[in-house]
């Protein structure tokens, strides 16, 4: 019987890690033969508990101390906004033309922003911030004419309170959740490895009757994650030794006479210095030592190609 393959769970992002653990724990819960073994059952139960903790950490709806305060102030803000809207609307058909005109101006502004108390918190907060800015700016005269200045001030204060509470919750929640999730993942990984070790040991001992279906399922899941989810490794360099070196790409011995190589004193090999037997004419003569196997003329310098 085959054993459970290994997998590097550290390479999975949080969502993929959650899905992998979810698939494993749910399948293990249905494996009657595995759970008949006391040691295997204990390992499975630990994994289920650790995965539950990871699930709780991953949940974006995790509640904290600011949640109740946000809900309370959001309700107050919504009540103030609806009251402001109703007050503005009550002047639309007011007999005094100037006030009716002011009402229509403010009502059009409300319609433009399309504020809905049931919309997402941050979005509603931003829209009310803009509405209040208009009420205190270009529409300030209309607001004052309808005696709604205090209403706007209260709406502004409630909106600012909600905004500050949302920010405080985010600041407190981010590091706490990130650290807790990291620890929960490690705990899940350890519990999963324990399950794999126990089941593989039982296979080695010949005590894994009825395990084959789960092991096949898990190995297929691992293969799929390796092929589709885990980051692919970068291809290794296919160059072989001797294919070239950093620099000009030349190999030792590629240099040719007259290629500009210089001796340590700045003179070219076979340059101006007269050699014994040259006769002073600068030309090579037989017997000058250069034609002998492995020989060099006197004064010649060995040129080492640059790498």
Structure description:
Helix content is 58%, strand content 0%. The protein has 307 residues and is mainly α. It folds into two domains: 9-63 and 177-229, no CATH class; 65-174, no CATH class. Helix 5 (97-113) packs antiparallel against helix 6.
Task: Name the descriptors.
2 domains, single chain, 307 residues, mainly alpha, rod-shaped, DUF6261
Instruction: State the domain count.
Output: 2
Query: How does the major sheet shape up?
Result: none
Class per helix and strand makeup: mainly alpha
Alpha carbon gap, first and last residue: 56 Å
Give the overall average pLDDT.
Answer: 81
Count of helical regions: 9
Measured on Cα atoms, how large is the radius of gyration?
A: 41 Å
Strand elements, count: 0
Layout of strands and helices, then pairs:
Elements: H1 14-28, H2 32-36, H3 38-58, H4 65-89, H5 97-113, H6 121-136, H7 140-145, H8 149-204, H9 212-228
Helix pairs in contact: 1-3, 1-9, 3-8, 4-8, 5-6, 6-8
